[in-house]
Every structure is written in structure tokens, then in C-alpha cells.
What does this fold into?
Amino acid sequence: MVELLPSILSADFAHLADQIAAAQRGGGSAIHVDVMDGHFVPNMTIGPPVVASLRKVTGLPLDCHLMIDNPNDYIAAFAEAGANWVSVHYEACPHLHRTLEMIIHHGMKPGVVLNPATRVDLIVEILPMVHHVLIMSVNPGWGGQEFIPFSLDKVRQLKEMRRALGLKFKIEIDGGVAHDTVAAIVKAGAELLVAGNAVFGAGQPERDARALLDAARKAAGERAASKRTGGKSKIH
Ligand code: DX5
Ligand code: ZN
It folds into this structure.
């Protein structure tokens, strides 16, 4: 099943509670929180205090995407703040297995994120530990960037690895998910769709979340139908 995770990076930060409520009415089922430190990525955003405030205004899972160096130093703080899912970058974690264990130990669901240039097969050993794998389809740092097409191949590869290993983790995608890209993304196999600009960019998060989710579900329906007919209908 496809899910929409609105990314508050493109929301109006002065009205986060209202913006999140609107995105939820539009069908958002978890809130994606982009944490940037000005080191791992050039931009800076928010940290545990804002997550603690969000926790008070929404019951949706908070999906915290840590684009930070030394994430181990902050895992306890995110748990304390009420984060539900925490994903760390493969590229920021020299001891990734230990970092994932820490996230689990703090009662949160762990995810691993891969930058566009990072190969999917590098994480095969830790796949049994994760709740989700996040494929970055832009270089992390900003919202509103253009979708990188080869990300679709990475989603397909990951899906095949999951099948071969008999695992159940979810495949998340982040960056450039919008009306013109969402069908191909869903047909490639992504299930958790992060979208910032496409949901919040026009100032109509309820309407735009709903439209994007509708398009995603339509693509999922087409994919399922094509499976039933043995792939004879035209999808890619
Ligand atoms: C980018 C962030 C994304 C960002 C996506 O570094 O990780 O979550 O909000 O923005 P859009 O959907 O606008 O590409
Ligand atoms: Zn993100």
C-alpha cells in the first residue's frame, strides 16, 4: 500500500500545527521531519525541541530523517522528543550496525538512507534490522529539487533484494516526488512517498496532498492490474 509522508521542510514554519493538520486531512499518514546540521548537508533546519513541539500537536508517526554527522549523539534526544521513526544516512555512519541498534534500543523504528551516488547493495547485511530504507532521489539539503531518474532503478533493485531475502522493510523515497513523477515512482515499487514542495509549496496542503495521493493510488492500482495480467498492460 502506498502512503504519503508530507515533509514539513516546505511548510510554513510559523504555522506548523495547522499545516500538519491540513496535510493529514489530505491523506498524509506520517510526518517527515528533515533534520539538517550544516555539516553533513550545507543547510540547517530543526532538531529535537521542534520534534517535541510537533509531538504535542499530532498523533501521526514522526519520521525523522537525520541529515547530520555523528547521529549517535542525538538518538536519545530524538527518542525523548517523541520521534517514532529515525533514519540515518549510510554515508554518515561508519558504525551503521551500532547506530541502528541504538535506535532500536531507544524504542524507535530504524531506517537507513542512501544518497543518490550510494549503491543499494552496500546495505545488504543490515537489511534484516531496518523498518525502512530511504532512497534519496535528490541530493539532500533542500526541497523543490528535480527528481533524479536513476533512483527508479535503485528502488527496483532494493525491491528485488527484499524479495530474494524474504524481508518486509518498507521502501521510502524522498526528493522530487510530484505529480509528474509519482506514477513512475510507485510503479518502480516505492511505498512511502515523501513530498515537501508538492504538498506545501502552493499553500494548499490539504488539496495538494489529496491530489498527489490519488495519483499514487491510481498508479498502484495500475501496477496491481498489470501483475494480474502478467505484465501485459503497458507500465514501466
Ligand atoms: C531534502 C529532504 C526532503 C525534502 C524533499 O534534503 O530530505 O525531505 O523535503 O522536498 P521535495 O519533496 O520538495 O523534493
Ligand atoms: Zn527528507
User: Anything to note?
Assistant: The first helix runs from residue 16 to 25. The chain has one domain: 3-229. The CA atoms of residues 49 and 81 lie 7 Å apart. The longest strand covers residues 31-36.
